[in-house]
Design a protein that fits this description.
By secondary structure, the protein is α/β, with parallel strands linked by helices. 34% of the residues lie in helices and 24% in strands.
Amino acid sequence: MLTPGGPAPIDAEESQRSRALAERIRGRIQANGGWLPFSTFMQAALYEPELGYYVSGAAIFGAAGDFVTAPELSPLFAGCLARAVDGLLQDATDDVLEFGAGSGRLAAELVAALARVGRAPRRYRIVEPSPVLRERQRRLLERMPREATAFEWLDAPPPEGWSGVAIANEVLDALPVDRFRVTAAGADAIGVVAAAGGFAWQARAAEGALARAVESLQQRLPSRLPPGFVSEIRPGQREWIARAAASLRRGVLLVVDYGLPRAQLYHPSRDGGTLCAFRRHRRVDDVLAEAGTRDLTAWVDFSALADDARAAGLEAHFLLENGIDEELARHVDGAAEAVRAAHRQAAATLLLPGEMGERFKVMAIARGIRGPFRGFGFRDLSASL
């Protein structure tokens, strides 16, 4: 739920941290000849040690933070996801692996939902690069009954391999993107330069990997994009999927995120792309200002994600989640009217086109397990890829 108005002001501590981060970014701009790809800027803004948005220790989740993820919104999401995970955990040695567990809320509610049906996993492993978020997750999850599930934190997917179910909830949208503008000759790369008081955009002819990526995109669309069209491409996505796939012996990776199939995401009507920032539940279009104090995000190209999964030797199924009616009934039966109303509002936010329903998607990426998958019987969108 977004709050109308401009971005909320930053406090003195945030201002000091942002200035320090800006100095580091300016140093990289200078070292790179005065111009920086936006993906490098976004990587620093979100993940720079001690200063980046996700590692600084600032409050970012929930009502007091900058945005609300589906698990923060309602336990309905975890309950629906548990239905799918239950059907995919095939034997007692299977684990659940979560990439970027955020506040830890999804892990807690998912394990609790599985425990209610006697299917709590023996081990729940979390791949979390942020020390700050790792500690926050640990504080929440140490309250869980220890005899049910053992929680374990990792810096990377387990090199020895694993079987079971992995979850990446709102992870890929925070992987850095490069901005581009279509030109008659091909494409421009829209990068970042230092400017008085901050940073500014500057375009130059795209070269190398970005030029090839834009041309590949053009060839895969129903018709070529017109000159002047601006959008984003996520250069690190294929490597991310390849790393996840390399350690998956048998199981399913559930990618849950904002996004669209390629033809819809890069439709001429979406000129300008989906890149934006969030600060105290307000959408902010100036993504270069006050680096490190706001979330940066761009929607996922699910067609590219399917291509990347297949290139890594996996199957990809583009789906819509199911089971929310049953979960809603479980939470509202016998509850006070105020509780019932809150759960109905949460369900509406998760489902309605004007809220998360139109943009929020699930892709199942599998090895050694074939669909259809339990919990996803409502509508399979694979043909739209």
